[in-house]
Specification:
Blueprint (H helix, E strand, L loop, with lengths): L7 H5 L6 H5 L4 H16 L2 H17 L11 E5 L4 H14 L1 H4 L2 E4 L2 E5 H21 L1
Helix pairs in contact: 3-4, 4-7
Length: 136
């Protein structure tokens, strides 16, 4: 593959955003979990942040305000206004952190969250938290 230099003017158009900018349309417990996961590697307290993320994911999955029981795997669907904006935010979160990518499912204009994937992620975060605490 041919390697190209990125022109200087490309960098001038870059922007940054806070995790809260990406999670603003998520239900509060899910948004908090995602923010903890995104920031965990950078704060110097990864075990605590991953533990908090697992806590918020459990709250999200157990809260009937956000999650309706379904026969299939999905527990929450985004059906708000500006679905293309939400899809872009969800895609940015998923690109930043592969663990987050596994819980979202894109279905047409909607974005859904998988119950099974949330439960798997909670287990993974708890295992990583234990590993980090044992290492210290």
């Amino acid at each position: 593959m041919t390697q190209y230099e990125t022109p200087q003017h490309y960098a001038l158009c870059r922007f940054t955003c806070e995790p809260a900018d990406l999670t603003q349309y998520l239900p509060h417990p899910l948004g908090s979990a995602v923010e903890y996961i995104l920031r965990a590697p950078f704060k110097g307290q990864e075990a605590d942040d991953l533990s908090k993320a697992a806590y918020w994911l459990r709250r999200f999955a157990d809260d009937s305000e956000w999650c309706e029981p379904c026969e299939d795997d999905f527990i929450w669907f985004y059906r708000g206004h500006m679905p293309q904006y939400f899809r872009a935010c969800a895609a940015a979160m998923c690109a930043q952190e592969p663990r987050i990518d596994r819980i979202f499912r894109f279905q047409g204009k909607n974005v859904a969250v998988s119950r099974n994937a949330v439960e798997d992620l909670v287990e993974e975060l708890e295992a990583r938290t234990k590993e980090l605490r044992n290492a210290s």
